[in-house]
Amino acid sequence: MALWKDKTRKHWRYDFQYQGSRYTGRGYATRREAETAMSERKKTLKETPTKTGMAFSESCNQYLDFAQKRFAEETYKYKVYVYTKFFEFLGKDFQLQEITPSIIASYLKTRHSNNNYNVHRRELSALFTYAKDTLETIEKNPVKKVGRLPHTPAVKQIPKEEDVIKLLLAADPQTDENDLLIVLLHTLARIDEVLRLTWEDINFENRTLTKWTRKTKDGAYRPVTVTMNDELYNTLWSMWQKKLQNTWVFYNKRTEDRYYKRPKFMKGLCSRAGISPHFGFHTLRHLMASLMADNPKISTKTIQKILGHASHRTTEIYLHELDGAIGSAMESISGKFTQRKEDPRPQAPPTNYKGSQQNN
What we know:
Blueprint: E1 2-6, E2 11-18, E3 21-28, H1 31-47, H2 56-70, H3 73-90, H4 101-108, H5 114-135, H6 161-170, H7 177-187, H8 191-195, E4 202-203, E5 208-213, E6 222-227, H9 230-242, E7 251-252, E8 257-258, H10 265-273, H11 281-293, H12 300-307, H13 312-315, H14 325-331
Antiparallel strand pairs: 1-2, 2-3, 4-5, 5-6, 7-8
């Protein structure tokens, strides 16, 4: 609380805080006038009914509506899980401003590991930050007062090159199993990015493929364009010749739509290939990035661009802006896992073939 005279404008001012908010007044001729005005302002504030805050459930629902549009499905589902567990811990629907750091700390103590503690803390912090910055229902995020716990990240198990060859040999030639593996390996894409590929994303003339990544700050899809090496080019060209429709690269005949998930694919294929324990799609991405990193001629910056790990601006940089760096990197993995059995694919088209612009 303060009363003072503004030496520049020659008038008196007051400044005080009430229930976390700041109030000021200016333009008073004397100190007494400023003091009287401040007293009246405080009296008015005390007589004004306190604004009722928003319940945790309502804040949570509004944030989840936003999160469903902003994040990938798995991320959204995990947020729902965390907030459900926290609500069960609360036992009733608290007003959001009633949830203190102490309550949050007590909940986090129920988590089974330091890593799980930190993950739940992060998701709760995201909710309270949204309530503070967007809903404006609280003034401070109480999670910020609760510290993270130390934990050692689990070591990522990267498959061996011979295991990937086993997968390719075990792939059923009557299905798209081999094609999916080749596209994953030679684009370094996430499984969702591959399943979203359309034939418009494939340019046979320029030998480029554009994948769309959502791993950005605003959640929007951004293009990441890579050069097709010979192995990827031949695989996609063979798929183009046999396609049943003109939209999706990986088409589900049963649903007459694209695949949205392939949850049993890797587990089943690893089992047939005699690989145990089985590994998932994402480990293939790590393996191929590691293989590229072993080549001293390929910069880390180039690998980041291929992976789509760069900033908003970087993900929109196209091939011609990289002076052939992406093309060299993609070619370095061509033939890495050439199958050890006869390949029935037809010959690739001439380089000036505009496959993506033609229909059957």
